[in-house]
Amino acid sequence: MRRRAMHCNSCRCLGPLVAICAALGSASACKRRAPEPAPSAQPSASAAPVVQAPRCSEPFPGKSFTLGDKSSEGADAGAQDDDDGTDQPALPFAVALGRGVAFGEGFAVSALRTSGGKTTAVVALLDAQAGSGRLAELGPLHADPDPPELAVLEDDLIALVHDSDAGGETLKLAALRPGAQKAEVVLGAEIAESRDESRAADVELGPERGVALWDEWSVSDKHGVIVSTSFARKDVSNVSKKRVVSAPTEDAEAPRLVRRPGGFWAAWVARTVAPKQKLLPGKKPGGPAPAPSAEAPDVPVVELGERFISVVPLDANGVASAEPKPATPKNAHVVVFDLATGPDGSALLSWRDDDSAPASDERRIHLARVRADGSVERHPVEDEGTGVGAPALVVDATPKDPNAPWAWLALDSVSDTTRLAAVNAGANLLDALGPEPVVRSAEVLAVSRGRLLVARPRGLAMELGVVECKPGPAPVPAPAPSAK
After folding, report:
1. CA quadruple 30, 204, 340, 395: dihedral sign
2. Distance between CA 141 and CA 143 in Å, rounded?
3. Within 13 A of 356's CA, how many CA atoms are on the CB side?
4. HSE (CB half, 13 Å, CA atoms) of 18?
5. Residue 189: how many other CB atoms lie within 10 Å
6. What are the structural domains, with CATH classification, of the chain?
7. What is the pLDDT of residue 104?
8. Are 78 and 466 in contact (CB under 8 A)?
9. What does the pLDDT average to over 311-321?
10. 457, β-bridge pairs
11. What single string gives the DSSP state of each residue in 244-288?
């Protein structure tokens, strides 16, 4: 399944914190994620990583696919990486990776390349060993776009391309059909967004129709909303009208979308806002502003600090089939999250909660499962070595081992070592969250047939390869609280 991460669209509400994203998020996904908390003044718990036997190995040593061109400086840096066993951050103007998905016998990865001042969107189609691949060009883009979103179902591969024109932000649908020599790109509909600083969007395919999901600013409501549209799976030029799927009392952003039996799961980050005031008959707008509600103060998120994850089931046409429900406490401080589908059709979530209040050291990773009836099971990750990084859940749709874990939780960051843990169908850890020598600080993009696709910078390029991982020993239970 594809790489999942919350987009960095919080620029609209968290402008002063956007710069932190580069320091603590994944290098290639920084623009796609919400900014993570600034490092604590205290030493990071990641300074003492969990010691465990290696769980991952390289099944094809020396096999890799390089996306982009290595500069001479980048080539030297890459050689140095191999010598000292460390990875370096991506250089400015390097290839920016987007989503990774399992496709066919191998993988597909979206990316942006910059050359001569022009930015081009591409999709790399890789074989099962990630040792060879070919590129499908999706055309030049404008302004400062994010890499395309990807969705796959059987032999259908769809890209949702971020772009802009004189009217504002746009989302372009494109179908990729691999051929004997090259992949055919069929351009579809263009979806107009509102003009704001957010470019968070997602796309997923169902048996008959696909759904695109994004956030935009509502002028009438004066807060962010989540909007969906559907399109024919075999005809990406056939799209439905837009629908708002978030609640009127939510300032919503950063949506994620996954397939479930009979439809889709949608999730986003929200904060509560006061509902719009309704005028009595014969009354006109104006007069003194109503007193703010004590339960739902309408203040900027940087002042409020409380952000929760809202989840809603969508039907096959992308229409909400229930009211959105919070999957986290409403007083949570969610800065980044990811969404996946469980084997029973439930929604699996992972998020980082950070209460950045003074003297607070709450920087915990959580896992949760949302059942079809709306009930929620939450599981905090009791691990002092979580360190920094944004959580990502990658699910293997075609495991070669029936006893393989349902998903892998990855915490990757440009400022820390990537940490992995196996996750079962109930959103519980099967082993300890810890680093892997062959992974180092690589970004985990997708998993297929037991092989994790990882990426690491090589100068101006990105090097893609695969590793095979098996769960380690079960995590040690947290000590019982003191009776004092």
Report:
1. negative
2. 7
3. 18
4. 14
5. 16
6. 9-275+300-469 (2.130.10.10)
7. 93
8. no
9. 97
10. 462
11. E-S-TTEEEEEEEEEEETTEEEEEEEEEE-PPPPPPPTT--S-SS
